[in-house]
Design brief:
The protein is an alpha+beta fold. 37% of the residues lie in helices and 10% in strands. The structure holds iron/sulfur cluster.
C-alpha cells in the first residue's frame, strides 16, 4: 500500500483508542464537555500502546484516557458511519496533534504533562481516600513481568495462586464502593481503573466464575 502523504480521515487513530489526556485538557472537564464517566484511568504497571508504537509497554505513571465502547478501544466519541469526531471543536489536545503522516508534534507531547484522576478531584472529595486505599491494597502488578512469568510452566501455577486473592479482593472492593455510592461501571473506571481480572485476560489467563469468587486458570 502506498504511504499516505496527508491525513485522509481514515479514523484508525480514533479506532485504536482515544488519547491520553494532558493537563490542559482539564478545561474540558471544567466546561462540562467531558465527565468522569467518559474517562478511564490507566494505572502504573498496565500494558499500554504508546503513540506510533507497535507493541504495548508497561505504564510508568498513571494517566487518563477517553473510554472505548462495546468492549473495544474505539473512542466513545467516534462516529463510525460519518467517520467523524462528535466533539471535534472541543476534542483533547492530543487529538488535534495526532497525524500518522507527521508524528513529530504528537511524539513531542507523548507521556508529558499527563492529567491524572487525582487532578480532577476537589481537595475534599471523599473518593480520594478510597482511591488511595484501593491503590495501596490492590496495586496493579507489572503486567510485563506477569506476562513473562506466565509463559514459564514452572512459575505459572504459583503465580495464579498469588494473583487470585488480589483479583477477588479488587472486585470485592469495587462492589462494596458501588453498593454504597451507586457508582456506575463507567465512573468506576475513572476512580479505580480497570479491574485486575480484565487486565489478565489478554495475557491468556482464563477466568472461571463461581457463586462466590473468580478462579484463574
Ligand atoms: S475525541 Fe474525537 S478525535 Fe479524539 S480520539 Fe475520540 S473521536 Fe478521535
Amino acid at each position: 500500500m502506498a504511504e499516505k502523504q496527508a491525513c485522509d480521515r481514515c479514523g484508525s487513530c480514533c479506532r485504536q483508542g482515544g488519547p491520553a489526556l494532558h493537563r490542559s485538557d482539564i478545561t474540558l472537564l471544567h466546561c462540562g464537555r467531558l465527565h468522569r464517566h467518559h474517562l478511564v484511568t490507566i494505572r502504573k504497571g498496565e500494558l499500554a500502546l504508546q503513540p506510533f508504537a507497535d507493541k504495548p509497554t508497561p505504564v510508568t505513571d498513571e494517566f487518563l484516557k477517553l473510554q472505548g465502547r462495546q468492549g473495544s478501544w474505539c473512542c466513545l466519541f467516534y462516529d463510525e458511519p460519518a467517520r467523524a469526531c462528535t466533539i471535534y471543536e472541543q476534542r483533547p489536545v492530543a487529538c488535534g496533534l495526532f497525524d500518522c503522516t507527521a508524528p513529530e508534534p504528537m511524539l513531542a507531547i507523548a507521556g508529558r504533562d499527563l492529567l491524572t484522576r487525582y487532578d480532577c478531584l476537589d481537595a475534599d472529595d471523599p473518593m480520594a481516600e478510597l482511591m488511595h486505599r484501593h491503590d495501596l491494597q490492590f496495586p496493579c502488578p507489572d503486567m510485563a513481568t506477569i506476562a513473562e512469568e506466565l509463559s514459564s510452566p514452572a512459575k505459572r501455577k504459583a503465580l495464579l495462586a498469588e494473583l487470585c486473592p488480589q483479583v477477588n479482593g479488587d472486585l470485592a472492593f469495587r462492589r462494596q464502593v458501588a453498593a454504597r455510592g451507586e457508582l456506575s461501571v463507567a465512573a468506576e473506571l475513572f476512580y479505580f481503573g480497570r479491574p485486575l481480572f480484565q487486565l489478565l485476560l489478554p495475557l491468556g489467563i482464563e477466568i472461571r466464575e463461581t457463586d462466590t469468587s473468580l478462579h484463574l486458570q
